[in-house]
Known about the structure:
The chain is mainly alpha-helical. Helix content is 81%, strand content 0%. The protein is elongated and about 55 Å long.
Amino acid sequence: MLDLWLAIAHHLAFLGLAAILAVEIALIRPGITAEEVIRIRRLDGIFGTLIGLILLVGILMVTVSPKGQDFYTDNPVFWVKMAAFTAVALISVLPTIRIYYWWQEARGGSFFSAPPQEIARVRAFLKVEAILFVTIPGFAAAVALGIGR
């Protein structure tokens, strides 16, 4: 039964990440307002928390699952999934840093304007992040079905 609850938590956190990533891609655009930056900063904090939750729940799934740790760690598809997850987490660092700097500027009360080249760069990173992100469920399904073992 613990396995079921861990899988549910894992999936809900993953769906939360997908939603936040979609909102960030939609809102981070030329002409972004100070209010939007403040909202995005909050969402980005939740994004980081969800990444940590997914990692924690994933570790629990691997270590306490009735399938056994070897079911996961002996499967190369599992490691491809982990590489994709790690890449998403690492790629998210640059947007997070930029959002943080924009947030500092936006909350200062002065006129806020993010430079267009910064917006373009952050959007490019978010799009690459999204492309890698959508591969993860496929890898997860393959691992759950024992493909690659």
